[in-house]
Every structure is written in C-alpha cells, then in structure tokens.
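Sample intake sheet
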Amino acid sequence: MSLVKYEPTRNAVPLSRAISSIFDEFFNNSPLANLDLPVLNIRPSVDIVEEDDKVLLKADMPGMEKDNIKVVVQDGILTIEGERNESREEKRKGYTRTERFMGTFSRSFNLPAWADESRVSADYTNGVLTVTIPKTEKAMPKQIEVKVS
C-alpha cells in the first residue's frame, strides 16, 4: 500500500470553475442580462498638458456641482477631491428602474520641484475642472540674445 499526500486545495480549482460557470449561466440567461445598466466611474479621467509657462490638469467631472469639488495643494502634492450624488429613473412599459450612485473620490499628483504652489488656480466650466500650475521663473526657458561683434 502506498501513501498519498493529502492536499486540501487539490479539488478547489475545479469546484471554483464549476461555481463560476453556474453564476455565469444564470446571469447571462436572465432577463437582467439584456438591461442596459449604466456604469458610473467615480474617479474622473485626467489629461495633463505642459506648456512653456505652466501645466494644465483637466479633469472630466460632468454633472458635478462646484461646491462638491475641492482642490488642495500641500507639501508638493496636488489633491482633487469630490463627491458625486446622481440619481436616474427610467420608466418603460411593465417596469420602473431607479438607480442612485453616491460616492467620494480623491486623486493626488506629485508636483515637480519647479511648480509655483502659491499661484495654483482652479476653474470649473461645463463639467471640466482645469487646474493651472504655473512654473517658477527658474523653470521657464530663457532665450539668449546673440550679439554680433
């Protein structure tokens, strides 16, 4: 008679696959699978553009109120915080669907050494937050005049 080492997780992977396939089959074949459920991404998408004298950080925040947005610069870190409260209702023949999305987000960015923290400004227009980060005088390119002798 030979001894076989006991491995408690040996059968766990096939069992896990079986359970996953049961859930996949249920949700893919249910009436809920055909509903177009919106997905709300709480964290805003951000574009960063560098210009000669500043950096612009643009964050998409459609539908947010200005009072729910906070921009903080401290110790070389720029932080954008906000809170979204959104509600949608859809009425169709036979059903009404109401959804509420709530949540807070926070995104932080390390500022480079050349950023002038004292002059950072923010503007919120048409659902886009634009944070302007000016460069210090030292960081800006200097054109040197060529003299003819």
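Comment: The longest strand covers residues 77-92. The mean pLDDT is 81.
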